[in-house]
Write a structure and sequence with these properties.
By secondary structure, the protein is α/β, with parallel strands linked by helices. The chain folds into two domains: about 270 residues, Crotonobetainyl-coa:carnitine coa-transferase, domain 1 (Rossmann fold, 3-Layer(aba) Sandwich); about 70 residues, no CATH class. Helix content is about 40%, strand content about 15%. It contains 19 helices and twelve strands. The protein has a seven-stranded mixed sheet, with helices on both faces. Strands 7-8-9 form a three-stranded antiparallel sheet, with helices on one face. The longest helix has 24 residues. The protein is elongated and about 85 Å long. It starts with 8 loop residues before the first strand and ends in a 7-residue tail after the last strand.
Length: about 400
Amino acid sequence: MRGPLSGIKVVELATFVAGPVTARLMADLGAEVIKVEAPRGDEWRRTGVSFNTRFSPEENPVFAIYNTGKKHVSLNLKTPEGMEAFHKLLAQADVFVTNTRQNSLKRLGLSYEDLKEKYPRLIYAIILGYGEKGPDAARPAFDTTAFWSRTGFLRDMAVDGEDYYPVNAPSSVGDTATGYLLLAEISAALYNRERTGKGDYVRSTLFRNGIFTMGTMAIIAQKPFGYPYPRTRVRVGAPGGSYRCADGEWIFMATGDPLKNYPAIHRIIGRPELTESRLQMDPKEYYGIIRDAMLTKPAAEWIRLGNAEDIPIVPMNHFSDISEDPQAWANGFVEHVTFPSGNTDVMPASPIEMDSADVPPTVPAFGVGEHTEEILQSLGYTPEEIRQMIESGAAVGSSGGSK
């Protein structure tokens, strides 16, 4: 497959989302990615199946989205034979991607300090939870905890009021953003290696990325700047924001350039005089005028009127609407994927958009150990040695393990 990372070999020792999404995108860019799983497989396989009663080992789109395009090897790194094979993989690798907790890596002898002299050209890329220092460095971390909860998003983005309740945490979004940054760092490290011949140690941290991603709020919410959260709907700032329409649907308007868009919004609701008078009005009264106006027409009509005025206005969709969005289909942002179960599902397509990359379509991810024999043979193991490793539990072959 043609791509800017063609010829690059990646060894992934990662579970759930943040590490696997980085490796998946590297595969999309042409790299050969070998995913090494424990004998019981990546826990995300079972998580993916749990989302819907239709999902199964043969139809697991939630696992496939982060693991398509990889070769799957299963090694027991707690055995000498499994660890020896893993080191043979590292000896051939350009990049090692992991989100294994650092204490576990140290126990396995796979920390950066353990490997940097042995593999001086290796790019060692790790996802961290809370960073390498401080009281919480060794704490377990997920995007729901380190990215969303710890940074204030879930508590402060909810609308303040009588029925206040924190926002529900989205699944895997913070992981994906953190994986994106790791991909950028790896790419920079590979470029630098071309100039210096040296590997690198690159980190992407859920908590740090969450803080940076919430950067605007993290600044303006500080006490000296007087922009406290959570905020009531009135204080969000009309005329922008979310509004219910006559048909019960919701729209969102972004004000962007106030000099351009405030007058335009006032025109479409038939109140052009508000452009001059709004600054003298009580914010609650002004918001009430916009809110009540939006209740007089269905969402589609407001979107039509807003588009005619070039207002940034969109329907507030549900997640379920993505699979039917004509704009997404027109650009190939979603695609059909057929699974061994015989079912065809709609899935988000790769986000990679480069003329130099022939990004492959998403395909179902393989089962645990699907390529173990193939990869071990490429490392110089004989069929008899491979058979012995599988029988001893040092490896899982293509006929064993959950998918």
